[in-house]
Amino acid sequence: MQTWIKRDNNDWFLYEVNEVAMDGDLHEFMIRDANGNILAMIRPDNLKDQSQLIDHLNNGKSVDGWKDSKGNTIFIPIGEEGNHDA
């Protein structure tokens, strides 16, 4: 399982994405803020979607604006003090 850490232009921690075993080869992706709070969960529908998601994360893409597993748009608060602690 992998972890991706996203930082802003000032190298402040914004969030991390943790890949978590879910259903055999299909995994879910937990997005946490600097305080460890879960901001969102992404559960790909299939291995192709999962592979594409991992490729995006490996290439430094932000999850801000993506859809979570409930269809809600993921919003990453930027510029709040809590995000600069880690």
TrEMBL record:
It comes from the Bacteria. This is Uncharacterized protein. It comes from Salicibibacter cibarius.
